[in-house]
Amino acid sequence: MRAALATQPGLAGDLVEPAPPLVAAPLAGPGLSDEHAAGLDLILEGFLLHHGRPRHVTLTDAGRRVLAGDYCYAHGLVWVADADDLDVIELLADLVAMSAALVSTGARDGLAPLWRGTIAAIAHRDPVFVDRLRRAKDALRTGSGTGPLHALTDGLPEAPLLEEALDA
């Protein structure tokens, strides 16, 4: 992931040293490849550049932050898309859209369970868990709140780096 950011002239001089660790590691499983983990971290960085405190890049100019965030989103999705898995792309597109919606409605408490649940769904490929995630997201979309997302992630491993990153 760091290599992708370092190749961009507009970002290379603004990288955080030393590089923060990848946040998906505690939730990783056999289905989470190195490309997926790095892609997820880039997508998270894109989200944080738009809606929080980025972990890998220090940019104060709002315009540059938006452009860098867009780059991170796009590049992260490209890395994940290289695995040619449309189910993962769908989960990530939903993650990005729903995360922005949570921020815009002031429901940031749903960010960590949404990200943890999505990463776990990608990593473990358990159809029952993926279905539960879809139902929790549907409940959120219909105004039922973040409770189902929290319940979904109760049994997942803790991800303190992820939760810290999302706590803006």
SSE topology:
Layout: H1 2-6, H2 9-12, H3 34-51, H4 62-81, H5 86-104, H6 111-124, H7 127-141, H8 147-153, H9 160-166
Helix pairs in contact: 3-4, 3-5, 5-6, 6-7, 6-8, 7-8
Task: Explain the overall architecture.
The protein is built from nine helices and no strands. The mean pLDDT is 85. The two termini are 22 Å apart. The protein is mainly alpha-helical and 168 residues long.
In the predicted model, the low-confidence regions spanning at least 5 consecutive residues are none
Count all strands and give the number: 0
Portion in strands: under 5%
Structural class: mainly alpha
Offer a quick outline of the entry.
This protein is 65% helix and 0% strand. The chain has 168 residues and is an all-alpha fold.
Key words describing this protein structure:
single chain, 168 residues, mainly alpha, 9 helices, globular
